[in-house]
Each structure stands twice: as C-alpha cells, then as structure tokens.
Amino acid sequence: MLVLRPYAEGSSDAPWLRIKDGKIVSNGSKKHLALLLSVGDPRGANPVFEHADTAVLREIEKEEREGKAASAHCVISMEPVMLGRHRVVVEDIRGLGKTRLRDILGSEFKTISERQGLSRVNNAGEDVPTYIIPDLEGHASDNMLESLKRSTLSGVWLIDTRSKAVLDEVSGARISRREIKIDTHNPELLGRISERGKHRDY
After folding, report:
1. Cβ contact 35:19 at 8 Å
2. Closest to 91 (Cα-Cα) out of 26, 39, 47, 146
3. In 10 A of CB 73, how many CB atoms?
4. Per-residue pLDDT band at 1 (split at 50, 70, 90)
5. In contact, 133 and 153? CB cutoff 8 Å
6. Cβ neighbour number for residue 192 with a 10 Å cutoff
7. How far apart are CA 119 and CA 121, in angstroms?
8. What's the CA gap between 25 and 191, in Å, rounded?
9. Can you tell me the distance from the alpha carbon of 7 to that of 109, in angstroms, rounded to the nearest whole number?
10. What would the pLDDT profile of 43-87 be if each residue is shown by its tens digit?
11. Taking a C-beta distance cutoff of 8 angstroms, is the pair 90, 70 a contact?
C-alpha cells in the first residue's frame, strides 16, 4: 500500500519529500517500479509573473504549510544486475537530486524493515533490528560519452599573468587572455597547452 507520508529533513521549515504515486509496469517478462517523487520547499521564493505589455509584476504569496514544488519520475528495474543492485533511471529535476532521492527511499526502506521485523546477529551474538540502507551511483550514458568524443572542449582560456588588470574602456588596455577550443578525441593536448602556457607566463 502506498502511503503519502511526507519525509521531512529536520525542522518544521525544512523541505518535505514524498512518494506521490507508484505502480508496477510490465514490459513482456520485465517488470519495473515506476515512482512519482515530489518535494515542497517553504524556503523557496514566491512565484512572480510579469505582464508582457505593461511589465507590471504580480507576486503570489505562499499560504501556510505551502512550499515551492518540484516533482520527478523514477523507474527502478525489478531485475537485479547483481545481488542487491538494480538499475534506476531518474528524471533530472533541480531540487530532486541523488541525495534527496536516497533520503526518500531510505525513509521508506526503514519503515518497511521495521514492519517486516528485519534483524541481524551482531558481534556479541545478539539478534538486533536492522534496516535496508539504499545508495545510488551515477552511470554515464554510452551515447553521451560517444557524443563527447566527437565534440570540442570550448571555453579554455589562457590568461596573461604579466598583463595589468585594466578595463577595455581605459586607453592603452590590452588583451590579457585568449580562448581556444580543443577536440575531445585528443585530450592530451590540454596538458601540452598547459605546459606551454606556464613557460610563457599564461
């Protein structure tokens, strides 16, 4: 049974997290657990809207026990890659990162562990309560890595350390930095440029 029980991070004015919905999704013989996660942050700023013609701003005040909301979808494979390890795909939403997802799942696993009466034998031979602690590890997409290999690394600046800190509007100002681009299929070039820059006071 899914319980819409918020998990708070500590004080009453801290963000609250919850699993708003969940279901098992089947695709042939494969099953996945689909979750809808949400966070409400009372510390977030009130939303402000601007009129396109008059530029007048309109602010909407949050009411008591309301917070800036964000939600994200999470899909967990029911088939383990190895014992205790499952593939997870999480929607990339600001405010609902890996740490908060781990907190939400950890809170639920702790409740489930207590209800199931999970226990272990400690070093003293005593049977003590225990609970599942989840952890999340990022995994780079193969497609993303291949795309990076075919791209260029921009925004590499060479700063002239001998140049004075002057503004462009000042008479006699001179260029104190240069921008270069590096093909990512040749990453060792960055090290060579760095060494060359040191010898030329960049």
Report:
1. yes
2. 39
3. 14
4. very low
5. no
6. 11
7. 7
8. 48
9. 12
10. 888 999 999 999 999 999 999 889 889 999 999 999 998 888 899
11. no
Residue 38: name the closest of 62, 15, 65 by CA. 15
CA atoms within 13 A on the CB side of 149: 6
Query: CA torsion sign, 126 to 110 to 3 to 6?
Result: positive
Please say whether the beta carbons of 96 and 70 come within 8 A: yes
- The sign of the torsion formed by the CA atoms of 101, 102, 105, 108 equals negative
**What is the DSSP secondary structure assignment for residue 31, as one 8-state letter?**
E
3-state helix, strand, coil in the chain (%, to 5): 20, 35, 45
Per residue in 126-177, pLDDT tens? 999 998 888 888 776 666 566 556 666 666 666 666 655 554 545 665 656 6
Place of tokens 């497609």: 143
pLDDT at 20 over 60: yes
Rounded CA separation 175/167 (Å): 10
pTM comes to 0.60
Task: Return the beta strands (E) in 2-146 as ranges.
Answer: 7-8, 16-27, 30-41, 48-50, 57-59, 68-77, 88-90, 119-121, 127-129
